[in-house]
Each structure stands twice: as C-alpha cells, then as structure tokens.
Amino acid sequence: xxxxxxxxxxxxxxxxxxxxxxxxxxxxxxxxxxxxxxxxxxxxxxxxxxxxxxxxxxxxxxxxxxxxxxxxxxxxxxxxxxxxxxxxxxxxxxxxxxxxxxxxxxx
Length: 107
Hints:
It contains two helices and nine strands; from the N terminus they run βαββββαββββ. The chain is 15% helix and 44% strand.
C-alpha cells in the first residue's frame, strides 16, 4: 500500500478538479530510466485499468500497475513547497540506492 499526506491529497484534489473531467486519479508507475536505473512516472489518468491496484484516500484515487507495485509498496508521498521548488516527494522503503540528483533509484 502507498500513503498520501494531507498536503499531497489537497494538491491532487485541485489538479483533478482542474482537469475538467479528464482525470479521476493519479497514476504512479516505475519505468527504466535515469542514472540509477529506475524512475517514477506520475500523471493524472481518467480511469484505472483492469490490472491496476487502486487505492483511495479521502476521495483521491491512486492507480498502480502490477509491475510497479512491488517497487513502491509502502511508499509515502508528500507535496512540499519551498523557496527553491515545489513538488511531490517520495519516501520509498524499497530503495536500495538513489542517484546523486535524487530522481532515479535501484531497488
């Protein structure tokens, strides 16, 4: 299971509401890429696929495909804003190593 902080849920609610009915939830997947080998891919999606694991957090749906689920199971997702940047932050207990820039990982 993944978890969303209150900040992450609030931002996702806004993004979904602003999608004009084009999105019902957040899709999280892991794909090959980045300097460490794997990277997160996030995007709003209209519907879950038949094979997806679907989580719901206070009305916010998260869709995860079967390939990605073992690599992000137990992950906590937050949204932070600072002077330098704003964005989603992942605390993933399944990461073995992470690249220097923090954008990719290995299990």
